[in-house]
Amino acid sequence: MKRDWLLYLVIFSLALNFGTIGTFAYLRWQDQQVEPPPPEEAPMPFRKMLRELNLDQQQRQSLRSLVPEHRRKVRELLQELAQQRRELFALLKQENLPQWPPVQTKIQEIGGLQIRLEEEKVQHLLEVQKNLKPEQRQLLMIHLEKRLSPFWGKHGRHRGMRDFHHGPPPPGGPPCPPGPSGMR
């Protein structure tokens, strides 16, 4: 009786080991099957993208006048964000653990700066688009979408996992960004 119990335990252990090894082998094989994107799908550098828009002299001049102020604002916001993050980290590494309210306040300040940075970038993009013809604007948006699409839908992705769709957008909500294959 005791011998039968031991035999079942050994068989179960072997089956569990083979299943684990098989799973790891499958996941490794699956990772090797993923091909990198073709080079023609890689996003083009921003300057080259602007050259492809075939801007006339007036448009180039208008866009050049927008850049210095935009860069200054972005640089200031990034420096302020870095400072706030250093302060948050200093709070977290204190000898005595901090209370939640000061940490939460610092996180909210960082969030506010991130919102201001995003608003500045979008306002700049809108100003750029005001200086473009409809076909140039359309081309710009196509190129920007290619540049940004690697960042859409990739959060939380682990080795061996596939992208999946979380369902349709809520009624009245914004549409979901396209996935890497352009499908929703």
Summarize the structure.
With 184 residues, the protein is an all-alpha fold. It has helices at residues 2-33, 46-52, 57-92, 100-130, 134-148.
Please give a structural write-up.
The protein is an all-alpha fold and 184 residues long. The chain has a domain at 43-148: Up-down Bundle (Four Helix Bundle (Hemerythrin (Met), subunit A)). It contains five helices and no strands. The radius of gyration is 26 Å and the shape is flat. The protein has helices at 2-33, 46-52, 57-92, 100-130, 134-148. Helix 3 runs antiparallel to helix 4 (100-130).
Going by CATH, the architecture of the domain at 43-148 would be Up-down Bundle
Under CATH at level 1, the class of the domain at 43-148 stands as Mainly Alpha
Identify the overall geometry: flat
Largest sheet: none
- Uncertain parts: 154-170, 173-184
Strand content: under 5%
What is the H/E string? HHHHH
Q: Strand tally, please?
A: 0
Strand-pairing-aware structural class: mainly alpha
Distance between the termini: 58 Å
CATH topology of the domain at 43-148: Four Helix Bundle (Hemerythrin (Met), subunit A)
**Rg, Cα atoms, Å:** 26 Å
Indicate the mean pLDDT.
79
Task: Give me the number of helical elements.
Answer: 5
Approximate helicity band: 55-70%
List the helices and strands and how they pair.
Elements: H1 2-33, H2 46-52, H3 57-92, H4 100-130, H5 134-148
For the structure shown, list the relevant keywords:
184 residues; mainly alpha; Four Helix Bundle (Hemerythrin (Met), subunit A); 5 helices; disordered C terminus
